[in-house]
Amino acid sequence: MLNDIFKTVGPIIAAAMAGKFEHTEFRFDDGKLRFDGDWDGVSLDEFDLTQAAPEKVVVFGPNRVKITEGKTFRIQLQGEATDAIRFSQRDGKLVVARRNGGAGETGPTTVEITMPAPRSVTLVGAGFIEIDALAEDASVCITGSGSIGLNNAACTRLKAKLLGSGRLQAEGSVERLKLVSAGSGGADLAELEAGKAQITITGSGSTRLACDGEVEAKMMGSGNITVFGRARCRVQSFGSGRFNCLPRHDRDAGDNGEPEVPQPPKPPKPPKSGGAAAKPKRAAAANKASKPAKAAKPARKPAKKRKAPATKTS
Prior knowledge:
19 strands; about 10% helix
């Protein structure tokens, strides 16, 4: 079971440690995101919006991005650090980042992207992405402490990956869901109806999902999985993590994907008082034991033997 988990999450961890993801090279220096190689990001004024709409979106840094479904490809910027946003598109993949990894550019900025429903969305860093729709066969990935919110999903297959402390929240429906989480991140999918789900968790993260079909879960560490519905579950667990099955109407129970902690049993009620309070049995027994013992009666004297009557002889 451990080998299966390592095979699933190992490539994700290795890619992050190597500083490569989706063929985009980057590195972290002094907590800042830096790009290596020939990444040629340009400002929005220089970016060519007449090219074909992308199929994938990769966002780096503390940006707020909103992806809205539409036939016409366009990008709009709002906020204080719009001059620092850089764009690049190659092989159907749109990359959004900040100049010099965001050094010296701390103002909040929103990037609004209108495009056909993307097949892949990736977030690296502490940003936030709101997705209006995804393609039928799609994937989302969070590396770092960022968050992705997915609205009105209608996917045949959805692959989700979380590496770090990021959070994924989704609503809608998906026929087949595959989720891999490594770290302390959380996936709130309680409003996402999954026909079939495959969940792998390593670390302390938590996952909530709704399913009436089959759920296959592999857990290593202290993470928790909560399934709402009437799913048929197969669980392999190594560590202190918990797997919980709850009715669908309990979706709002608990926080951070954990069910409410059961309350301790109530103490027994005291005996009803009517007139004079009845003394406890133990107290009565103690009172009896405190009374002096009665003196033993002297032994009876042995009874005298009667003489046999004399017999007359003739």
